[in-house]
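Is it possible to get an amino acid sequence alongside its tokenized fold?
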Amino acid sequence: MKELLLFILFSFTIKFSYTQRDSTSVWIGKATLKNQVDLVKAPFSSGKNVLVSTSCASLAVGSIFFFDKNIQRNSTIITRNNQNIESVFEYVSYGGNLESILGITAGSYLFGKISKNEKWEKTGELLGISIFNTAVVTYAFKWGFARQRPYVTGEDDWHFLEIAEDRASFISGHSSASFAMASIFALQNKDRPWVKWVAYGSATAISLSRIVIDKHWTSDVLLGAAIGYGIGHFTHNTLYNKDFHILPFRSSNATGFSLTLVF
């Protein structure tokens, strides 16, 4: 619940301003809707290869559903016999918490701003946008499907349209967010190959931890990772060459950030 409240607070204190011939401001709902429509359309409007790869990924994740219970059962047996493994992965899992994600995002942006490093400033902005888009998609899945988490009873029950912490398994928010971030870091540092390995390695460890500590089914994690990876790439490819800036704003009834895009 704490993560949900933080996300809502973060979401509703962001204001999007699109600067064209006439300056206009639109609130986050309209801007987010447009972004989500673009995300849904992306696989079908980006060429045959993207559509084929998306279909293959969906088929692969779909097939994992049949093995979810066996993987969860075996994972539970392993952690019971060696509780040190569970403790380590509990610690690793913290890397995907909302506080950690927002801290890394804000830290990247502020570091770039203070040091006047445009690359890090842009990285922070891209991280913020990709994380926001990923969160919208992730919570739509969680609340829409309301899949029961494996630790509850070990049964794969789906309740649909029920908001509850123990029924928010599908998809993994830790996986989607960590892979969205990893994608941005990797794409922003193509001249440093080691960054890609560290970023995706960390995202993989965080995702795996969600299975080991029994918070998610394997299919939750795989689909979350795929969605985060896709949104990270989509955000970078869409906005990398665009002139946009995230700036703090304060008014009589709101405090937050504004995103200005120049077309």
